[in-house]
Amino acid sequence: MNDLLQSPTRRQLLSMIGKTAGATAMYQAMTTLGFASESSFKEEMNLKGAPAGASIVILGAGLGGLTAAYELRKAGYKVTVLEYQNRGGGRSWTLNSGDKYTELGGAEVTCDFEKGNYFNGGPWRLPIHHYAVFHYCKKFGVALQPFIQNNDRAYLHRTNHFNGAPQRLGEVQNDIRGYVSELLSKAVNKGSLDSTVNKEDKEKLLEGLKGWGVLDTNYRYVKSHETGKHRGYSVYPGGGLMPDAKPSTPIPMNKLLDSGMWSDIYSNYTVHVHQPTMFQPVGGMGKIGDAFTRECREMIIFNAKVTNINQDETGVTVDYVDSNSPDGAAKTV
Question: Pick from 100, 93, 48: which is nearest to 74 by CA?
Answer without folding.
Answer: 48
